[in-house]
């Protein structure tokens, strides 16, 4: 589903192959080929080929505070609408999830592939009915801060910026939908002239502005492109008044999303550069709002 990693060691492939053979799913369909796919920050994914079909095996860490059953429900619902690969197996004992493999895919390119397919897919996903937790930004910030190593103490000024953004977002009309909350090019696969959503690890009910903020930030949209994103999304939802509401919410939503990313990277080893990038992004957005 993503490009292969050439630097993976033979011992890693052997370990994953042995893991596949322990899974009941592969008892009647033993793996013929295993190779790595591009690894994320917290998960590793592998291509697995059998005589019957091709699959993606995603290995996840045991200590990550994610509800895998919720993730599975979101991917099942998205797959039923043709928005995602079908999930086939979740095994919490071995900490793996198996899904269909989408062949000939490439990361979504906003300029080349265009925003129309992206907005149609996003609006369809947002309108899925799935039982999940509800993201409350203030509570989520507290959870992120609690997970930081004791030696790391974010600057009070930066935290004040985030708390202001929480208040500003709360003061606008809410639009709670099933959000993806990790919409970057690596989780958007373009294949066979259509878009597929990947990795539903953080998907839950949240304000739609957070997903739009993620797209604007990850694809570095200018103001004109951002306004087209908002109006196009409102049109796909069939709710014209959403345009004005989202225009009011997009700046605090971008600050919050940047802050979420900053705090997340702060808690990871060897991720200082990524943390600094998102912190600077958050500070620049706050300065823009102050002008």
TrEMBL record:
Q: Name one GO molecular function term.
A: ethanolamine kinase activity
Ranges for domain Aminoglycoside phosphotransferase come to 34-232
Keywords attached to this entry: Transferase
- Write out the GO cellular component annotations: cytoplasm
Per the record, the domain of life is: Bacteria
Pfam families in UniProt: APH
- Record carries keyword Signal: no
Kindly give the InterPro entries that the UniProt entry links to this protein.
Answer: Aminoglycoside_PTrfase (IPR002575), Kinase-like_dom_sf (IPR011009)
What name does UniProt use for this protein?
A: Phosphotransferase
Source taxonomy: Bacteria, Pseudomonadati, Pseudomonadota, Gammaproteobacteria, Chromatiales
């Amino acid at each position: 589903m993503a490009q292969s990693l050439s630097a993976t060691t033979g011992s890693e492939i052997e370990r994953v192959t042995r893991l596949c053979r322990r899974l009941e799913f592969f008892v009647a369909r033993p793996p013929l080929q295993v190779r790595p796919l591009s690894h994320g920050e917290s998960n590793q994914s592998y291509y697995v080929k059998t005589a019957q079909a091709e699959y993606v095996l995603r290995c996840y860490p045991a200590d990550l505070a994610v509800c895998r059953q919720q993730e599975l429900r979101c991917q099942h619902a998205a797959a039923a609408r043709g928005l995602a690969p079908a999930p086939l197996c979740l095994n919490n004992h071995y900490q793996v999830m198996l899904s269909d493999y989408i062949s000939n895919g490439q990361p979504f390119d906003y300029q080349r592939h265009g925003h129309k397919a992206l907005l149609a897919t996003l609006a369809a996903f947002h309108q899925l009915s799935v039982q999940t937790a509800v993201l409350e930004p203030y509570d989520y910030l507290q959870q992120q801060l609690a997970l930081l190593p004791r030696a790391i103490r974010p600057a009070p000024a930066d935290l004040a910026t985030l708390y202001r953004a929480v208040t500003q977002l709360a003061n606008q009309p809410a639009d709670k939908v099933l959000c993806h909350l990790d919409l970057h090019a690596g989780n958007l696969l373009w294949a066979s002239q259509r878009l597929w959503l990947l990795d539903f690890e953080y998907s839950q009910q949240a304000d739609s502005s957070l997903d739009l903020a993620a797209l604007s930030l990850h694809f570095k949209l200018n103001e004109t492109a951002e306004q087209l994103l908002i109006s196009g999304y409102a049109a796909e939802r069939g709710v014209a008044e959403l345009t004005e509401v989202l225009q009011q919410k997009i700046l605090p939503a971008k600050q919050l999303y940047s802050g979420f990313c900053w705090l997340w990277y702060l808690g990871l080893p060897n991720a200082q550069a990524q943390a600094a990038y998102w912190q600077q992004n958050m500070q620049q957005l706050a300065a823009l709002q102050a002008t």
